[in-house]
Design a protein that fits this description.
This protein is an alpha+beta fold and 583 residues long. Among the domains are: 187 residues, DNA ligase/mRNA capping enzyme (D-amino Acid Aminotransferase, Chain A, domain 1), CATH 3.30.470.30; 147 residues, Nucleic acid-binding proteins (OB fold (Dihydrolipoamide Acetyltransferase, E2P), Beta Barrel), CATH 2.40.50.140. 37% of the residues lie in helices and 21% in strands. It is built from 21 helices and 22 strands. The strands form four sheets. Strands 13, 14, 15, 16, 17, 18, 19 and 22 form an eight-stranded mixed β-sheet that branches. A hairpin with a 2-residue loop joins strand 7 and strand 8. Helix 2 packs across helix 10. The model has no long low-confidence stretch (mean pLDDT 90). It binds adenosine monophosphate (AMP). Adenosine monophosphate (AMP) binds next to strand 2. Adenosine monophosphate binds next to strand 2.
Length: 583
């Protein structure tokens, strides 16, 4: 496929925010794609040249792209910046300058694979002279493109190619392109959950067919989409769901880490599949020394821990370790312990299908309770509501968040929420039993004292995973500290959107919209029905809203927008309020 054809599709995708239309356009695009380019197209649709978890970036800031655009179209950098300021988008500036230049005839019509190859080359330059190499390679590429293609290519290094397409939409469209309907989506999704690589799944599907996709196994080095927990209203309910006997583990309030070890190579991934290897050199060293296996994928919660006093530090302390600079200094100040709670792969074998109790035995064979950095999470076999309550109280008294209860015969369900894992969190009187992870959808400009921050309030939403869209659930104006307002102001500068973004469904319009990217953990007193918000709106026009919302923490580093609380969970939390758990 010619890249100009793909650029035409980008234009169509940009012009709609309706999911069904997006699927229709995407499936037509996929029908026109061949097996050698479908993977690349999937990455390019996300504005990337590799899956999300690969730390492969084009590494070009605004200034560098502006120089490349200027050189490509015989302008000064200042001219580019001027047009960029006027249009608010570098791609649009490149398009306009390309249109105005005399260089629009006799372009070579590059293919998708050629453009992909050039972009990949740019991402790989390193060492001396990198800046010049990147700028001149991007300039050469832009020169060879038509104005619309130049627009989209110029946006890729800046992460401003905003088509608003989530993985579920791509998976539906792949199924529709090769099959008469969307029924292959669950098989494709399962493969995606195991490999986190849309390009790989699409290519396998196009090259080898759905039966080979069905056999996809997890791969050391590719993050597995994490299994998620459900909530239940009471210990009695948990017993009904989990069977006569089940496992209980403390719920640590740190961050989830997936460790991939193969020989002496270690990679770490966060809950949202980001490669965090460089941020935690202590865990990398610990994994090399303390995990006894040739190859392994295991999961645990990393938490700042004082080994002398055996004291777990609060989340605010642990979160100081999520940084890109002064990593070693911080590792000394706030050492982490990784409490391993599951194992997915061992010595060449995918063991996700094995029941939890067998995986736990294998986990015990590779990490010990006495480890310095990698330790196994405590586990108790429980049978009664009293045993749950006693263990829960013990965990709380040690400063932990609560308990995770696990079904003994359940496989590891990648990317899935289910009653195989049930979480019981500490709750405070008069509050919901759990917080809600919301997505920032927009910002209200500040008045009075808050003019200084440019932010006076927030519009937040939750995720409707059936429709792959974000729906509003609350406005938040109080309960943020000055620092938090400043942080929101800083974050929103980078994700500010000109219009309501694709996949956002809200009747309320904030002062400005933001791309749905940042997750905020919100605590509220109650969930109520409301005609204002679109979350879970029914035929009578009633949605759900948070009452007295306040910010608990920023989760921009560990949750993607699609990992936010879902509408389905909100409905559940709403009904849990009326159950005996709250009395
Ligand atoms: P939540 O983020 O509130 O839905 O709770 C699920 C998270 O709890 C997981 O993603 C883990 O990061 C964390 N967690 C802490 N302790 C455990 C444990 N023992 N087993 C599983 N997850 C745990």
């Amino acid at each position: 496929m010619k890249f100009s054809k793909l650029a035409e599709y980008y234009e169509k995708l940009e012009a709609t925010s309706k999911r069904l239309e997006l699927i229709d356009i995407l499936s037509k695009l996929f029908k026109e794609s061949n097996a050698d380019e479908i993977g690349k197209i999937c990455y390019l649709l996300q504005g990337r040249v590799a899956p999300f978890f690969e730390p492969i970036e084009l590494g070009m800031a605004e200034n560098m792209v502006a120089v490349a655009v200027a050189r490509a179209f015989n302008k000064e950098k200042a001219d580019v910046i001027k047009v960029y300021r006027k249009l608010g988008n570098m791609g649009k500036a490149a398009e306009e300058l390309s249109n105005n230049s005399q260089l629009t005839t006799n372009k070579p019509q590059l293919s998708v694979s050629e453009v992909f190859g050039e972009l990949l080359k740019i991402s790989r330059f390193s060492g001396e002279g990198t800046v010049e190499k990147k700028v001149s390679a991007l300039c050469d590429l832009l020169k060879k493109l038509d104005p619309i293609s130049a627009k989209h290519v110029a946006n890729i290094p800046l992460g401003t190619l905003r088509l608003g397409i989530g993985a579920p939409t791509v998976l539906d469209s792949l199924s529709l392109a090769k099959h008469k309907d969307k029924t292959l989506r669950p098989v494709l999704e399962d493969a995606y959950n195991k490999t986190s690589d849309l390009g790989f799944v699409a290519q396998t599907f196009f090259k080898k067919g759905i039966d080979v996709v069905r056999k996809t196994e997890i791969i050391v080095g590719n993050p597995v989409r994490p299994a998620l927990a459900e909530r239940l209203p009471s210990a009695e309910e948990a017993i009904k769901r989990l069977g006569k006997e089940f496992a209980g583990e403390p719920k640590f309030d740190g961050f989830r880490v997936q460790v991939h070890l193969s020989g002496s190579s270690v990679k770490l991934f966060s809950r949202n599949l980001e490669n965090t290897t460089l941020a935690f050199p202590d865990i990398v060293e610990g994994a090399k020394k303390e995990i006894k296996a040739k190859s392994v994928i295991l999961e645990g919660e990393a938490i700042a821990f004082n080994p002398e006093t055996h004291e777990f530090l609060p989340f605010q302390e642990t979160s100081k370790r999520r940084r890109k600079y002064k990593v070693d200094e911080m590792a000394k100040k706030l050492p982490l312990v990784l409490f391993a709670f599951d194992i997915l792969y061992l010595n060449g074998k995918d063991i996700t299908e094995k029941p939890y109790k067998e995986r736990r035995k294998l986990l015990e064979s590779v990490v010990s309770k006495a480890g310095n950095i990698i330790r196994i999470a405590e586990e108790k076999k429980l049978k009664s509501a009293k045993e749950i309550t006693d263990f829960f109280n013990e965990a709380i008294s040690e400063g932990l968040e609560g308990l995770m209860l696990k079904k003994l015969d359940s496989p590891y369900i990648a990317g899935g929420r289910g009653f195989h894992w049930v979480k019981f969190k500490r709750s405070q009187a008069g509050q919901l039993t759990d917080s809600v992870d919301c997505v920032l959808l927009g910002v209200y400009s500040g008045k009075g004292k808050r003019t200084e921050f440019g932010v006076g309030g927030l519009l937040v939403g939750v995720y409707d995973n059936k429709k792959d869209e974000f729906v509003s659930i609350s406005r938040i104006g109080t309960g943020l500290t000055d620092d938090e307002f400043r942080k929101i102001s800083e974050i929103s500068k980078h994700i500010r959107a000109e219009h309501k973004p694709a996949r956002v469904n809200s009747d309320i319009t904030p002062s400005f919209w933001t791309e749905p990217k940042v997750v905020l953990e919100i605590q509220a007193d109650e969930i109520t029905r409301s005609p204002i918000h679109t979350a879970g709106r029914d035929k009578e026009g009633l949605g759900y809203a948070l009452r007295f919302p306040r910010l608990v923490k920023f989760r921009e580093n560990d949750k993607q927008a699609e990992d936010a609380t879902t509408v389905f969970e909100v409905v559940k939390l709403y009904s849990l309020q009326f159950s005996h758990y709250k009395k």
